Amino acid sequence: MKAHSDNRGKSRKRKEVDLPVDQHKTRSRELTVQLLRRIMDGVYPAGSRLPTERLLGEEFGTSRSVIREALKRIEALNLVAIRQGSGAVVQDFQTKGGVELADLLLFSSNGEIDEAFLMEMAQLHEGMHIWVVRLAARHITPDEIGVLRKLLIERASLAADPERLAGITMEISRRIVQAAHNRFLNLLFNTLARTTRVSRIVFTTPEYFEPDMQNFLERLVEAFANRDSEMAALLTTRIFKNHKAAFIKAVGLLNMEDPLEPMGI
């Protein structure tokens, strides 16, 4: 009888089924986004504790290993502090959060754009480019100007190849940042270029300037060659003013993409 009783006790334990690695990671990232949205929407306010792993697993219908991985991702973003015996304590995203959260701030869970955040982003977008081209005009070397001119000649031949056109435009962006000869700025570019979609749009030379992009870049490089930081800034200001609506449209199109793929989570 005792053996029979032990077997019945074991049968009542909830058995966790391990997901395939790719499916496990995808589910963990999906859960990470859902929990992050709750934190940023105030469902889990700063200073509160997240529900236990068991409760989260029951609510989302997933294993505790998936829950733990999601919590580790959120901890890496500094939005929870996991303490032994105290669970996961929610942190204030306004003081602890980083640029990885930009996509979540811009788009709500139902896909609507936060207009105020979009305008804040647009201000940074233009200001960042003006600052970069001013620095580049002051510090660029003749060799760097030569490289940019070669890239522009190649770019002019790629109008019918959008994928390669986007790639070379990104490389030109990188070269302009490097021409500023500011090591911290270069590190910032590298970081933002591999984190969020929003960050990449803010920091790189915008593809939505087409069909004016080629002419803009050619005139910009000439301003660099003449060490004319004022002209470089003026050209940048003008093209941003002329393409403001295109910028807003480009940001809106981001929400049609996979919201998980580019995020630093």
Helix segment tally: 14
Q: CATH superfamily name of the largest domain?
A: GntR ligand-binding domain-like
Percent strand equals under 5%
Corresponding CATH architecture of the largest domain: Up-down Bundle
What is the 3D shape? Answer: elongated
Q: Strand pairing plus helix content: what structural class?
A: mainly alpha
In this structure, how is the largest beta sheet organized? 2 strands, antiparallel
What series of H and E elements makes up the topology? HHHHEEHHHHHHHHHH
Q: Tell me the strand order in the biggest sheet.
A: 1-2
Number of strands: 2
Structural account:
The protein has 265 residues and is mostly helical. The protein folds into two domains: 93 residues, Arc Repressor Mutant, subunit A (Orthogonal Bundle); 152 residues, Up-down Bundle (Four Helix Bundle (Hemerythrin (Met), subunit A)). Helix content is 66%, strand content 3%. It is built from 14 helices and two strands. The protein has a two-stranded antiparallel ribbon. A hairpin with a 3-residue loop joins strand 1 and strand 2. Helix 7 runs parallel beside helix 12. The radius of gyration is 24 Å and the shape is elongated. The N and C termini lie far apart (51 Å). The N terminus is likely disordered.
